[in-house]
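User: Could you check the structure of this?
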Amino acid sequence: MKGTLLSLGHGYSAQALAARLIADGWRVLGTTRNPATARAFRAAGVDPVLWPDEVPAAIGAATHLLTSIAPDAAGDPVLRAFGPALAAHRWAWVGYLSTTGVYGDRQGGWVDETTPPAAGRGRSQARVEAEAAWQATGMPVHVFRLAGIYGPGRSPLDRLRDGTARRIVKPGQIFSRIHVEDIARVLQASIDRPNPGAIYNVCDDEPAPAEDVIAHAAALLGLPPPPTVPWDQADLSPMARSFYEESRRVRNDRIRSELGVTLAHPTYRQGLAAILAQENPAAGG
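Assistant: Sure, the predicted C-alpha cells are below.
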C-alpha cells in the first residue's frame, strides 16, 4: 500500500481524488456524519470514518491529510475539534481546499498566487483566516484555491435539463472554473511532489462569462439557450448575488511549472464535452 489518506469532509472533489488514489493502491479514509453515506463510501472503496468519534483513531492510521471542510462563524471546525492531535501527528502531506474567492473583486483583472488576498465578504474572509490558521500549525500544509467546480452531475448540462439554468448577464463579469477531475489531478501531483507552504490556484485556462458557458452547454444538448436576464433584475440568493458582484481572471501557471500538471479539460468546452461522452460512451465511439 502506497499510503493512507484521511479525507475530512469527504465530498465531491475529495471523492474524485480518492478514486484515483485507490486505483493506484492507496487506502482512503473519509469522514461522514451519516451512516447511509458511509455505505456509499464503502461501495466506492473508501473506509468511512464517523465524525467526530472515529476521527482520532483515523488520524493515527493516516499518512496524508486532505480537508475540504469550510470554516464557520467560529473559525475552522477541524482545527477547533482536533488541532492538537493533528499537529502532533507526523504527516507526509496535508492539503487544504480553499477558494479563489479569497482574491475578491478585481474588476476582471488577473490574479496569481502572489496576489495578496482581498476578500470582501464574510465567507471569503473566513477562508483567508482559515488558510492562515492551517499554515500556522507547523504541519506540511499545501493550500489549493479552487475556482468554480463543475463535473458529472454538477454542470450547466444538468441545470439545462431540469429547467433551472438562467443566462444572467452582467457586462464585464468574468469567472474561472475547473473540472473536478482536474482538481484530482492537481492534488495527486502535489502528493507526488510535496512542497509544504505552497499555494496553488486550481482553475482552467479560459476565464469566461457564465452566460457563454450556459449557451455552449445548450448547443451541445441541441437546446435553445435560456433567455438572457440582466443581473440587476434577477431574483438571486445572497450567495448567487455575491458571485456576480465579483469579477476576476485567475492564472494557473504554477500547477504546470511546479507540479507538471497538464489539464485534461483546459476550457469548459472540453470539460462539458467530456461529461456528455461519459454519460453516453457509445456516442463517443
